[in-house]
Predict the structure.
Amino acid sequence: MQRIGMVIGVRPEKIAEYKRLHAAVWPEVLSMISACNIRNYSIFLKEPENLLFSFFEYHGNDYAADMAKMAADPKTQEWWSVCMPCQAPLDTRKKGEWWATMEEVFFHA
């Protein structure tokens, strides 16, 4: 199992919309998340900095393949097209990233 942390900005004027969307995530999107071996997925909001922090556990054997599977899913693409206008990617993210990946520096089980 791999723990993944990511961060992205959220546009202040879109916070209420982002919360509303995530209070009722489409069932097809939730099914795809599970089908791609993601468990214990959470997104946290930090105001007034307007940062979203996501955490999830990856339980599969090929992270890149599972993320490609998710990205190819039409319903997930539709979901992202609704959520992405709410987000403000960090200027410091790596090339090709939308959410910036974070390094895990501590874990205690």
